[in-house]
Amino acid sequence: MQKKIFPSPNPWWLGLTLFGLIALAYTPSLFCGFIWDDDVGIIHNENLRSWEGLWKIWAEPARTPQGHYWPVVYTTFWLEFQVWELNPFGYHLTNLLIQTVNTLILWRLLVYLRIPGAWLAAALFGIHPIQVESVAWVIERKNLLAGLFFLTSIFSYVKFLERGTRGLYSLSLILFVGGMLSKSSVFALPFVLGLLVFWRATESTVKQFLPIFPFLIIGSIIAWWDVSLVHRREVIEHGLEWSDRLVIAGKAFWFYLFKILVPAKLVAVYPKWNVESFSLTQWIWPLSVLTLGGILFVWYWRTGKKGLWVAFLLYSIALAPTLGLIDFGFMALSFVADRFAYLATIPVFLVLVSGALDLLGRTHQKKMWIAVFAAV
Fold this sequence. Notes:
By secondary structure, this protein is mostly helical. Helices cover about 65% and strands about 0% of the residues. It has helices at about 10-25, 40-45, 50-60, 70-85, 90-110, 120-125, 130-135, 140-165, 165-180, 190-200, 205-210, 215-235, 240-260, 285-305, 305-320, 345-360, 365-375. The chain starts with 10 loop residues before the first helix and ends with a helix.
């Protein structure tokens, strides 16, 4: 039996350590106020002030701020307004707690999937600087709630695959709907489930993927409904050619990966890339993504090792809704934002941690490398 590099402490202590790390990292956000879109979503949102408003949040989408149908998000704001009205401390505290819960769920999900370095990967997800925008900005509650439903739905589905219990399947589907009613980017979940089935199966058959189709159908309906509501208020068209979109998508793919690896100069609104200045050399961005994907696929095809190929696809799928291939409002200001990479960070951290552990397992200078990783 292979000797473990690290001992296995009590899970309770590991959980408390995660909680302490996140509390330490995000405590300064508790004393921030409301910013930017918080005024539309909370301060001037009349729906938060009465029972009639709660009904409107669910039954009258046209009255929802920002145009999107996110009733789960605004229901949490409604509940909080009843408790602390417009005191921003409470809203920030809720965001911090949701981030903590998301991190703990991710940790236990990775442990359940028997992925090495589960705790460290979850810790990186919890406190990485690129997550600050999602946690410290109150209106980005939608990102945190989407992540909560996303991860719990996956957890339930994985258990369903092992136990075959209808209740777990129904729970996973309900959680998916909750995520879609928090943020429509959760539409990526059925594709993630498909990749998990592919990753875990020794031989993939069509029958194994059939339970995912209801997720795809329901997600498509909710996503179409949400987009149609937004377009009723305003037509969002940025006049981009498909060639421009592919270049933007390629640049964004590498932009987020770089920001995850080197989290420096993070800002709320990054300078918008000048599409008119795009030249033929800019095609290196999308072509390099395709090249990387091709290399990883060939590696999987020759070795049978699925990890890197699946991680590449997970990262791409998580980013897909905000890569610029379809128009959305924020593209008027910038093509990229830290919050768009919230869930896409997970496969990157898994690759980094597994690579580090593999290196530690092969080297005879473990203490030196442990010190290096701890310093990083």
